[in-house]
Mitochondrial Rho GTPase 1/3 EF hand associated type-1 domain-containing protein (Syncephalis pseudoplumigaleata), 178 residues
Amino acid sequence: MTLLDSRKTLGYLAYLGYHGDAREALKVTKTRKAERRRGRVQRSVFLCYVLGAAGSGKTSLLRAFVRRPVLPHYTPTTRVLSVVNTVEVKGSERYLVLQEVGSNFQEELLRDKRRLEMCDLLCFVYDRSDANSFEYRFDVPPDVYCRQLGLAPPLSVSVMTQPTTDIFNTLTDIAMHP
Ligand SMILES: Nc1nc2c(ncn2[C@@H]2O[C@H](COP(=O)(O)OP(=O)(O)OP(=O)(O)O)[C@@H](O)[C@H]2O)c(=O)[nH]1
Ligand SMILES: [Mg+2]
């Protein structure tokens, strides 16, 4: 909550009777640029926007992260959905916040410089069993697309048959070392 809406946290602190300078109750991290210059990532909370075609599995990935069972029926996401959990990366504990905005609001998000600057990472989800789920946005196949941008190849996950812990570690690791 503090990451996404620090005013609300300050409001709650006041409500709960916190005395003193409430701003000192929050930890303000250095900019990512400054952290990278020093070569040491101090921040412990990372924000990742989860994007991709409708029905590609974004909500399922978010639910897997917070160990909720797979839903039996597909329900499109219409409101912003955020989940948080801890992830261990190379012996240190970090928090990863995954946020899905709903497929109708993605274009808007990607045009909004301020909101893009808030996030540490973008995670694009597509359904391997449905060609349209990647191609609606890009005109080359996923592996070619990644190669052209110098990104690691797409990761394959299944919330039905595989544990998904690795992917959340990988996401956090990339956020820490982009
Ligand atoms: N077999 C299989 N089905 C999956 C997997 N992930 C999601 N699904 C199914 O795909 C459907 C859509 O999943 P959602 O996670 O709701 O998709 P979404 O991307 O959040 O969709 P929107 O909110 O409409 O954008 C559901 O019926 C899921 O059960 C997976 O890893 N394997
Ligand atoms: Mg969804």
